[in-house]
Design goal:
The complex is a heterodimer of chains A (about 90) and B (about 375). Chain A is an alpha+beta fold and about 90 residues long. Chain A has three helices and five strands; from the N terminus they run ββββαααβ. In chain A, β2 and β3 form a beta hairpin. Chain B is an alpha/beta fold and about 375 residues long. In chain B, about 35% of the residues lie in helices and about 15% in strands. In chain B, strands 7-6-5-4-3-2-1-8-9-10 form a ten-stranded mixed β-sheet, with helices on one face. Chain B is globular, with a radius of gyration of 20 Å. Classes of the chains: A alpha+beta (about 90), B alpha/beta (about 375). At the A-B interface, β2 of A face loops of B.
Chain lengths: ~90, ~375
């Protein structure tokens, strides 16, 4: 749903680098690399943005990508983050 | 301008919480002993350092020493690490770990990546010759206590003249213990070992035998058997093909000052545990963040990551330079030759007998 919003797990360490970011879960030791787009989505989740707002924010960077496809990619990413325990649906 | 760009923060910080140790091993890469003066950081200061490490978004801490369990405030440090956003590992000789300590550690099991215990022989006479009488029996008790509490234990063996023939039996013992893995590492001319290096170092023939032994065991115990000897085998595997290429690789981008940094017991920050005397700045004078992002000695050290083998003294004319990544800078540094010189322990010419192995010889 485009009106979904996400709550980040406050035990997660989000560390930005020049070319993206790291997400680290100290409970499990799981360390994930995010590219710049992933890092942007994480920051939007931190702000409590709705999925719709994340899509709108990324559309200017991916003008050639149809909205449906962009929405699907973002959903996949958020699902992976949710499965890894980094976020929960708000 | 170089291309190397450091990460925003280290992945791991080594915290050498004390210089004191219950043992004074001949091969120790730190100058630790029971009589070592420990004018180090207080527990309060270490807790402040951990706050900085956490704020800097480091992921893991490795607690080392000296012997960490000889530091009176060790459990306060472990408590703080476990209650924050960090994971941690411990390097220990396990002799001061009894049932009570292991039981306390069990509470932090979810945050402990690894407890690395030193074992230098499969029998008391071999282990105790390096570590002191009674240490073999005590390490067994420690390992048992840790394993009984479900803690993740691995073993670490420094290969020297006294134990190089014992490698297969040490490995079998490690398997019997049920530890996660064992590392067979080279002796480094650092700390106490630098004073005993000539007595303990392997001859070229002995080194070849160790490499052949580990190569053979590695095929049967892959993954379980680790350490710098495995790295050497990997490094030397394609050297005979060096002449088939003309591209000179960059020097090895190791973890020192890149993904890792060390804080000594006295607050001095160094790029890694091997570069114990390459003191960058003291944590009592500057924050970890300032030290990591600052110029000076750390910046000079990182220049190595933009060098090739041609930049190392004594390597430009080497026929193997097309396959060589220059080894470890801590070795020439410990030998007083600076960071940009040949590492004789990783040199294929030395290994192959084309050059004499004289680590303490003048250039």
């Amino acid at each position: 749903m485009d009106t979904d919003c996400f709550i980040i797990n406050d035990r997660t360490v989000f560390r930005e680098e020049d070319d993206g970011a790291f997400l680290f879960d100290p409970e499990t030791g799981s360390l994930n690399c995010l590219n710049k787009t992933g890092a942007y989505i994480w920051r939007m989740c931190e702000k409590g943005a709705y999925k719709k707002e994340i899509i709108e924010g990324l559309q200017s960077s991916f003008k050639d990508v149809p909205e449906d496809s962009l929405s699907e990619d973002i959903s996949t990413f958020l699902k992976l983050m949710e499965e890894a325990g980094f976020i929960t649906k708000g | 301008m170089g291309n190397f760009k450091a990460y925003s923060a280290p992945f791991e910080v080594f915290m050498s919480v004390t210089n004191r140790c219950n043992l004074s091993c001949k091969h120790c890469s730190v100058s630790s002993s029971p009589s070592a003066l420990d004018e180090g950081l207080s527990v309060r200061q270490w807790l402040d350092v951990i706050d900085q490490i956490e704020d800097f978004k480091v992921f893991t801490v490795r607690i080392s020493g000296g012997e960490p369990f000889a530091y009176p405030g060790i459990f306060k440090i472990i408590d703080r690490l476990s209650n924050g956003l960090l994971r941690f590992s411990i390097n220990t000789n396990a002799m001061l770990v009894g049932k009570e300590e292991a039981d306390r550690l069990k509470r932090y099991r979810g945050r402990i990546d690894n407890i690395m215990v030193s074992l230098d022989g499969s029998r008391a006479d071999i282990h105790d010759r390096l570590r002191g009488r009674g240490s073999y029996k005590a390490v067994f008790k420690g390992i048992d206590a840790l394993l009984d509490n479900g803690l993740p234990v691995s073993l670490y063996t420094t290969v020297v003249r006294y134990n190089y023939l014992d490698i297969p039996d040490i490995l079998r013992l490690a398997k019997k213990f049920g530890v996660e893995n064992i590392k067979f590492n080279e002796l480094l001319p650092i700390g106490n070992a630098s004073k005993n290096f000539e007595k303990l170092e392997l001859s070229r023939d002995e080194r070849i035998l160790v490499i052949d032994t580990i190569k053979d065991l590695k095929s049967r115990y892959n993954g379980f058997l680790q350490g710098t000897y495995c790295d050497l085998i990997e490094m030397f595997s394609d050297m005979d093909k060096a002449a088939l290429t003309s591209v000179i690789p960059s020097l090895n981008i190791c973890s020192a000052g890149n993904t890792q940094i060390m804080i000594r017991h006295d607050g001095w920050v160094t790029p890694c545990d091997r570069l114990y005397d390459y003191k960058i700045e003291n944590i009592l004078n500057k924050s970890l963040k300032e030290i990591w992002n600052g110029g000076g000695k750390l910046k000079r050290f990182r220049k190595r990551f933009d060098m090739t083998i041609d930049d190392l003294a004594g390597c430009r004319a080497c026929v193997y330079k097309y396959k060589c990544e220059g080894g470890c800078p801590a070795i020439p540094f410990a030998l007083g030759r600076g960071l940009s010189s040949k590492d004789p322990l990783s040199c294929y010419r030395v290994f192959n007998g084309e050059e004499e192995y004289r680590p303490y010889a003048e250039n």
